[in-house]
Amino acid sequence: MLTMESFKNFILAFLGGFVLIHLVNAQDQAGFISISCGSPENSSFSEAVTGINYISDAAFINTGISQNISTVYMAGLQQQARDLRSFPQGIRNCYNINIMQGTKYLIRGTFFYGNYDGLSKLPQFDLHLGVNKWDTVKIENVSVVVIKELIHVPSQNYLQVCLVNTGLGMPFISAIELRPLNNKTYVTISGSLALFGRYDLGSLSRTVYR
């Protein structure tokens, strides 16, 4: 039988867990720039799994076409990867993003093909940061997300993320994310740092998390 005292303890424990869950979901996103490419103009959403707030890319670029991936690949996929912007015209198409000059940023580009065009043709194209080549994006599986990351300190109060057509398929992008970092993190004498790998050393599970 549940006594009044144990009922009170249950309520306190429940409320404590409830508050903790909401504190995790309502993480501090100060300085975050989270762009869902191809989302409807002026739209925004909070991603259900991470609680991260995303906005449409329409204010950052005036070229390209908004597309949706095939419904076949949507199950279990985070919302920012369900839409994308493709670039059938022009060799070089750039996003213009205002940032804090001199702040160290983790810059992430996400690419999920998901057979959005119904052609099942896996593209390859280049990704530039400003005038400099960042990396080559090679889509090797219709249902596998490709992520490119760079740590960069901008010398201006804006930066350009550019998709470059190299003749091997139409460029596209699903999401662009910028996260401010402590300036003492990942110190480099000059230039930017590209992600090689990220590992959870000592983990006994194969859980993927952010």
Automatic annotation (TrEMBL):
Signal peptide boundaries = 1-26
Record's InterPro entries? Malectin-like_Carb-bd_dom
**Entry-linked Pfam families:** Malectin_like
The source's domain of life comes to: Eukaryota
Q: Which GO terms describe its cellular component?
A: membrane
Query: Which compartments does it reside in?
Result: Membrane
Q: Does the keyword Membrane apply?
A: yes
Keyword Protein biosynthesis attached: no
**Main localisation, per the record?**
membrane
The membrane topology term of the UniProt record is:
Single-pass membrane protein
Occurrences of domain Malectin-like (ranges): 35-207
**Which keywords appear in this protein's UniProt record, sorted alphabetically?**
Membrane, Signal, Transmembrane, Transmembrane helix
Q: What is this protein called?
A: Malectin-like domain-containing protein
The protein's organism comes out as: Castanea mollissima (Chinese chestnut)
